[in-house]
Amino acid sequence: MDEAAHSMNDPILKVEHLSMKFGGLVAIGDLSFEARRGEITALIGPNGAGKTTVFNCITGFYKPSEGMITLTRKGGEQLLLERMPDFRITAKAKVARTFQNIRLFSGMTVLENLLVAQHNKLMLASGFTVLGLLGLGTYKAASAESIELAKFWLEKANLVDRADDPAGDLSYGAQRRLEIARAMCTEPELLCLDEPAAGLNPRESAALNLMLNDIKENSGASILLIEHDMSVVMQISDHVVVLEYGRKISDGDPISVKADPRVIAAYLGVDDEEVEEVLVEVGDEQVIEQLDAEPDRAHGPSDSSSMMAGSVSDTISHSDDYGERITVSRSASKADQVDRRAAKAASTPPVTAEPVKVAKAPGKAKTVKPAASAKPATNVSRPTAAEKTRPATKAAPAYGLTGTVTSGKPAPAAKSGKAAAAKPSVAQAAPAKPKASAKPAAAKSVAGKPAAAKPAAPKAAAAKPKADAKKPAAAKKAPALSNTLKAPRGGKADRLILIKGIGPVNEKKLNQHGIYHFDQIAAWKKADIEAAEAYLAFDGRIEREDWMRQAKELAKQGATKPAAAKRGGRK
Amino acid sequence: MAVNTTGSEKAANATSNVFNNAIREGLYAGLIAFGLFVLLVGLKTDQNIRNELVIVQRWGLLAIMVAIAAVGRFAYIAYLVPEIERRRRAKAAAPVAVSDEESFLKRNLNTIGLVFLFLFPVIVVMTSGLQGSLKWIDNFGIQILIYVMLAWGLNIVVGLAGLLDLGYVAFYAVGAYCYALLGTEFGWSFWILLPAAGAMAAMWGIILGFPVLRLRGDYLAIVTLAFGEIIRLVLINWREVTNGVSGISGIPKVSFFGLFTFNVSDPNYIAKVFDIPTSGVYYKIFLYYLILLLCLLTAFVTMRLRRMPVGRAWEALREDEIACRSLGINTTNTKLTAFAIGAMFGGFAGSFFAARQGFVSPESFIFLESAVILAIVVLGGMGSLTGIAIAAAVMIGGTEILREMQFLKLVFGPSFTPELYRMLLFGLAMVVVMVWKPRGFVGSREPTAFLYKRKAVSSAFTKEGHG
């Protein structure tokens, strides 16, 4: 019993200091983790995090640049996977895998697919074809046995009545199951599944969960899993490793990983505005450039030919220190942003629940020194400092710039102006900023902020990362508007998007702040407009587009016609 | 009764409609043809005796072309289209259950074919006499069967393993020269040299296989093509051994395991042993049965191998190489066995070829041969033995039969030599088959194992391989 428990907990797979570089691109950087025997270990992370690359390294399709991958067989034999060719890893180390894009032998029948998987066993039984060709030896018996094994897995995969159909004829979900069954026919000790639930509907996904649990419990195979479908990951995995940009950002049981703010940031991202704020603060030159002008072609996706091309490519910059080497800029990692923000928040003096609504250009354009000051706090505490650092003459042209920027996205012009002004000093300050360890810092940040009055339970943190960890915006700014409502009158809000200039996003924001009806907008006074502009990140637009007049007209119409009719008429 | 009349009236209406339509379409087609051809065909620039440019008017020819276009279009719309429609409707209306049972011919195709092949020399000798049968047995029977064997050998490499090999004729050459050189130099028997030639070709298959293991698709095709040319050029230029372009003659004939021979001067010449009239046909008949048995050996081994793990691995390799590796299959060895076994059958065919011709020269092993063999494999349907045999019979037999079509001289004039058009026929046949059946005569694939019922896998699912 004791021994069994011991063997259950020893790692079947140990990845140590694994690095994989493609040319100069670091796809995996110094990754270490363990998968324990008899468990389901999930490897998760946003797109391009390097999960599949890890798989390819484990299964020998890539040779890692550095690092050691040790697999311990049931007998205690240890094998170094990075030294073995791919087919030997399956044959000898008993690691089987499936593929993200299904790779079945589509022109062979379902049964044949499973027989091919038993190639090595049958090859031996047929005396490397020679004896089998002559009809000697044990091939016949081995062949019958292999069909029995295939049948066993077909039953598990619920495909036994399709056994004689071509694999390419199966539906997508069935193909996924067949691929797993095929991998299991190699009788693996470690089963690596690359996104097995991708493209499955909820029912199929649930069936897959059952199948994987069954494999775990009955076949003695441990499972390593890449998955995007969180329901699968959280339900069945015993252990979760989270990657972002090739680095491990979290490792532990599903519940603790779920609550990790770094994971949340990596997955859900930080609010666009906040990302910009953070990036500007840490002096990410690209963002500053972007705000200043067109994005640089050199960072466009077309220039990157790596497998991480696309969204990630523009976060990669060539740094001179490493010559050829391409590194992911620090600011690209959302998890790092959380770290930095947490570090910043920790060093900020606590701010009482004071309405910081006057987030106007001068207020926001705070200086960078001290770099570790938290944003909302600085806005209030140092308006004068900002004025000092930036001459008023500079503020005017910065304002002029806003028109162009806001049309593209609602980035506050003030910010962009500030970014331009602050650029030299910020850029220097950034690298010097220390990177705090995440968890304690996050906890502190929560404690330090007014919104932390809420119980800082992990659940809450997971559900509303923005609310307590980052931006206490809503709670604080709401009182700025004079005529807010707790809920829409009659339980039904007017469709604010009917006002020219209000999109669905802004409608939502307004609703959050208690603005539900046209007459509310129509009754806005100057102070209200300013406040609204501040958190919609519009400046001058409300007046320019004359929302109040529009709202008045719409309110009048609304009074005469029922809302439904109006909606129909509009469409 | 009333219904009947209205029905027939309707039908009459429909026909008159179709005819009106067809006449209109025909007129349009004629007009378009006239517009197209009036300058291209109706007028022709030429030189007269004084080297002056003159315009020749060819209204007659133009009229013929326009008439062909108009009448053709009319016939197509008026007769062909309704006929096709009618057939399609009849097909759709026919009960499905009937098609379930295959016809007797289809079910027993292989058996009938085999019986026919074994009886072929007897039939031919009986119908056209001893001397007259020579042509049919040699030019048709043996020639076709050599190509069947070659194509079945290449089928292992291309059809099963999905490795595109454009230099297959190299192994044919290795086998032929192996028998020619060892047979003339050391006087070894065919029965020793046949396996030796096969082994030698297999070895060359592995030698070729090694460097190209990592290549796929077009790259593999080019390298194998180059390999075929290298072998041929070596045969041409290594005069001390191969006698260059002059080739090797006087290759010993095959004997019937030494019991009797086919040399008239030998004491145990077949005619003397059996006391029958002297004739060259005996040797051809013997060779016919020999190549038939060699073909059957190839077919047997191929079918057997398909049911073995290595055969399944070949097909899996064709379907998806990466998945193969993920299942622990050593793709290197798998590819090499495919190359080696395919080459071995090429070598067998080569040594048989040398024994049959009595003479080999590099001219027999040009790239065109590789292309023809590959074309047979593709036309027959990659992986299908029956389809390939049919394709070989059609392609090789078809080009041979052109020689017999002397009546064509009556049509095209006495200077017409039909056999010069065999490549045209070859190309035409390929185009037709590829349009009609893009995956070859037999596109579907027989599964190698089944749980409940053997169902052919439609060609829609099988892959051609990527090299």
Describe the structure in your own words.
The complex is a heterodimer of chains A (571) and B (467). Helix content of chain A is 49%, strand content 12%. Chain A has 571 residues and is an alpha/beta fold. Chain A has a 6-stranded mixed β-sheet, sandwiched between helices. The longest helix of chain A is centred in the last third of the chain and has 20 residues, at 413-432. Chain A folds into 3 domains: 2-264, Rossmann fold, CATH 3.40.50; 267-475, no CATH class; 481-570, no CATH class. Chain B has 2 domains: 2-91, no CATH class; 117-368, no CATH class. Helices cover 70% and strands 3% of the residues of chain B. In chain B, 39% of the residues are buried. The chains are: A alpha/beta (571), B mainly alpha (467).
Give a short account of the largest sheet of chain A. Answer: 6 strands, mixed
Taking all residues together, what is the mean pLDDT of chain B?
Answer: 83
Average pLDDT figure of chain A: 66
Approximately how much helix is present in the residues of chain B? Answer: over 70%
Please give the largest β-sheet of chain B: 2 strands, antiparallel
Per CATH, which architecture of the largest domain in chain A?
3-Layer(aba) Sandwich
User: How many beta-strand elements of chain A?
Assistant: 12
**Structural class computed from helices and strand pairing of chain A:** alpha/beta
Provide the succession of SSEs of chain B.
Answer: HEEHHHHHHHHEHHHHHEHHHH
Could you please say which CATH topology of the largest domain in chain A applies here?
A: Rossmann fold
List segments of chain A where confidence is low: pLDDT < 50 over at least 5 consecutive residues.
Answer: 1-7, 291-327, 350-479, 561-571
How many domains make up the coordinates of chain A? 3
